Amino acid sequence: MLLTHLLALTAERPRPTGPFIPSLSLHPSVLIGVGLLAALYLYGITAWRRRHVPGAPLSPWRVVSFFTGLLVLLGSLNGPIHDLSDYYLFSAHMVQHLLLVFVLPPLLLAGTPGWLLSPLFAHGPARAAMRFLTRPVVAGLFFTAMMVLWHLVPLYDLMMRNHDVHIVTHLLFIVAGTLMWWPVLSPSPEVPRLSPGLQMLYLFLIGIPMQAVAAPISLADTVLYHWYAEAPRTWGLTALQDQQTGGLLMWVPGGLYLGLAIGVIFFQWAAKEK
Q: SS in 3 state form for 58-103?
């Protein structure tokens, strides 16, 4: 049975052989997951709030932020972005990954009021576990490990060949992104965020290994990921140009995004001190 399972992991999943045609492809697992998150959130800010924390503050922008995050999740894992990243373009896959780790978690964290999370961390073991997982060193190392390991050629090719592995990878990216952003955007007083100065240092250090992953991909003069070398050519990009574009997306916009976050923290900190 173990051999059968290993063979199933290495068996290549079917993929289209024709040119890319945009479509609104929807995936039940994503729809169910997003639906459950939306239902739990709505229950928490309505019925549960009235029963357990009446009068607890809830700014409209939090609700907008949370549901914007759910829209990002839907758009990332369905439709054209999903099809392009799964079957045609490495660069589209990098856009998808950046959305899952840099855009989605901050929106969900910003949209979640602290009082909604308090029951989860009311018990000592759960609070202790979350405090451990969101320590800057632990969260940063886990995020870095996910970014490095899943961009190694053997693991990346495994992810692309097997859809179940691909789903697990996306879940790991979302978890890693949420833990990574927690020390900066934590809404919970039980598991608090870092001081502003440490937040800026933390985000700066987080960016270094990501650039170290992106640089070799961008500068490679051969195609590393053969899944895309065999894909139908899209938008006139060769496989190597597509790969270099994907690496540059992780390298430049990814680095600028973290730099922008550092700048926002600095100016908020300066305004508060002033």
A: CCHHHHHHHHHHHHHHHHHHCHHHHHHHHHCCHHHHHHHHHHHHHH
| Cβ burial, residue 159 (10 Å; 0-12/13-18/19+) | buried
Look-up of token digits 């879940």? 171
Distance from C-alpha of 45 to C-alpha of 53, rounded to nearest angstrom: 10
Ramachandran sector of residue 56 (left: φ over 0; alpha: ψ -120 to 50; beta: rest): beta
pLDDT in tens, 7-60: 444 445 577 778 888 888 899 999 999 999 999 999 999 999 999 999 999 999
At 194 the three-state DSSP class reads coil
d(CA 59, CA 18): 48
Q: Tell me which residue of 226, 260, 265, 253 sits closest to 98, measured CA to CA.
A: 253
**What residue has token string 């945009």?**
22
b (16+ CB within 10 A) / e for 13-47? eeeeeeebeeeeeeeeebeebbeebeeebeebbee
* Region class of 235: left (phi > 0), else alpha (psi between -120 and 50), else beta: left
Q: Which residues contact 157 (CB under 8 A, 6 or more apart)?
A: 225, 226, 227
Burial label for 131, CB within 10 Å (0-12, 13-18, 19+), is middle
Structure tokens at 188: 């919970």
- State how far the Cα of 39 lies from the Cα of 37, in Å rounded to an integer: 6
**Tens digits of residue pLDDT in 222-242:** 999 999 998 999 999 999 999
